Structure prediction request, 107 residues.
Amino acid sequence: MTADQILAEIREANLSYLMLAQSLIRVDTEQALYRLGISEDTARLIGTLTPAQMMKIAASNTLLCRFRMDDDMVWGLLTSHGKPAANEGVNRLHASILLAGRHQEAA
Prediction:
């Protein structure tokens, strides 16, 4: 993949992320804050962006979204690495609880 292709993919991902974020914020702000891991101020800003503003922001060569799972425990729970598939639902629930706690701490 060339550098130009990577930049095009980043722009596409940015636009998709902004559109999804704005849609979630407009439907249910509290859920959007949790699922996106953003602050109320950021949600308010994204919720009011015009399509032209979203296109301009998306054109950046920097990826706007990021992984929030930054430790081995959460990654292990989400991937069920080394565990039977029967525990998958419990593992995902546990990971959601951990992420919700981190969202509360950040807020």
User: Anything to note?
Assistant: The chain has a mean pLDDT of 83. The chain has two domains: 1-66, 68-107.
